[in-house]
Amino acid sequence: MLGFKLVMPVREGNLKEKARPIYLDMQATTPMDPRVLDAMLPYYTDQYGNPHSRTHAYGWEAEDAVEVARKHVADLIGADTKDIIFTSGATETNNMAIKGIARFHKDKKRHIITTQTEHKCVLDSCRKLQEEGFDVTYLPVQPNGIISLAELEAAIRPDTSLVSIMTVNNETGVIQPMKEIGAIVRKHRGVYFHTDAAQAVGKIHLDVNDMNVDLMSISGHKLYGPKGVGAAYVRRRPRVRLEPIISGGGQERGLRSGTLPSTLVIGLGEAARIAQQEMTRDHHRISLLSKRLVDGINARVDHVVRNGDPNGYPGCVNLSFSYVEGESLLMALKDIALSSGSACTSASLEPSYVLRALGAAEDMAHSSLRFGIGRFTTEAEIDFVVEKIAATVSKLRDMSPLWEMVQEGIDINAIDWSQSQH
Amino acid sequence: MSHPTPNSILRLYSSMLRTSRSFSSYNFREYFVRRTKSTFREIQAEKDPLRAASLFRKAAEEHTVLKRSALVNQLYGGWRLVVEKQKPVRQRSDS
């Protein structure tokens, strides 16, 4: 018989038939939306042109698709198409923005303001600038994770060139009052406002003109797009000038040389389009699931503390379970893919610096879990997680001598653990 | 384009639902089934025939994307999640 049969490929490891853990770590990365992959595939197969090739049809079609993607990203944050610059991700964009602004204005201005709860790549860029002789102010945050506007205003000096504050925190989901911060920064001429919005874009409504943002970092794989691509919003009116990190062929307004990864860029554009289309629906659903999770756990487990502002982004729920060690909880929860903090620092056993900045005690920072809820999370998964968490926490507490002492009514903090008197 | 008849809406709905159910990844399958249902509820509730027609056209476009996506997902779809019904472990009848 002619024709062909669709044979399912047997991939390695398929024989084991192991059940996979459910994914609840949407702040680390999100699964790529199948519709995004569908938009990308033609450019991985037939339409492989270099978008910068001006002499043939392969280049033109790739360039056209890249410009459409640029428009989708710009529309999502209320920007102009020409303000968007594609990069390799939010880390590169943060580096580009912070080092670029600081170095461009280094003759007159040598001061930068950021917060203690920023992402590692922002803090590390600032540390690098400190080595170069810049002065950096790390603003503290209030116990709910939000910065104090009065403290920000007091920290701005005549030689401040940049204020960098993230929109949504990656560990606690705290949303900073961007509009108010933007208004304060705008009052001071010559101070630029950068925000790391990797966790916010496509999830909450953002408008760069409304918030008076001059630079914004966007990441592809946090909004159901591909990994390895991101974007920078760099305002053109009034013009924001910065020194590029990468020199070369002068692509992307000379700020980021190098051939654009057209396929990834198209994926980011499609992800931005879908995010805009689905934002209301997604947000409503994620709020419901988040409430279901928090209420479910609170009903079953005592001594649970929610870290950060409860009115933050509902897709990021950071909970501390007293008298249970976070890492051992993670080890026991094999069926759930979770993290105790940001993925970048999940290899170390140090407590999260973000939670410490919020004023959490060391033992509470050690016992935190971050639940990331996204577009594809289901009610069944949430119920499963609540069930598992309740069972595991009570099992671990039953083993813990500390828990036993608490049940007997001993105040743990009053105990002098040192044995110096012997 | 003429306005969609109730019949053609129903046909597209059942076809899209079938496509959504054919995703092999649990999360995508559940999402697209849920989304298809809400999209068609929206079309049904729409009083303005012009808007309903445009919603219908958009859904038809999405269906073609969905069909291709489901195929790709079937090719690479992996193991079942712990929340899904696991495949029954078959035993020999004589054991």
TrEMBL record, chain A:
GO MF annotation terms: cysteine desulfurase activity; iron-sulfur cluster binding; metal ion binding; pyridoxal phosphate binding
A GO CC term attached to the entry: mitochondrion
Protein's recorded name: cysteine desulfurase
Keyword Oxidoreductase recorded: no
Needed cofactors: pyridoxal 5'-phosphate
SUPFAM superfamilies (alphabetical): PLP-dependent transferases
Catalytic activity: (sulfur carrier)-H + L-cysteine = (sulfur carrier)-SH + L-alanine
HAMAP family in alphabetical order: Cys_desulf_IscS (MF_00331)
EC number: 2.8.1.7
Record-linked InterPro entries: Aminotrans_V_dom, Aminotrans_V_PyrdxlP_BS, Cys_deSase_IscS, Cysteine_dSase, PyrdxlP-dep_Trfase, PyrdxlP-dep_Trfase_major, PyrdxlP-dep_Trfase_small
Family membership noted in the UniProt record: Belongs to the class-V pyridoxal-phosphate-dependent aminotransferase family. NifS/IscS subfamily.
Keywords: Iron, Iron-sulfur, Metal-binding, Pyridoxal phosphate, Transferase
UniProtKB/TrEMBL annotation, chain B:
Any single GO CC term annotated in Swiss-Prot or TrEMBL for this entry: mitochondrion
A Pfam match: Complex1_LYR
Domain of life: Eukaryota
InterPro entries: Complex1_LYR_dom, Complex1_LYR_LYRM4, ISC_assembly_LYR
Swiss-Prot/TrEMBL GO biological process terms: iron-sulfur cluster assembly
CDD domains (UniProt xref): Complex1_LYR_LYRM4 (cd20264)
Family: Belongs to the complex I LYR family.
Protein known as: Complex 1 LYR protein domain-containing protein
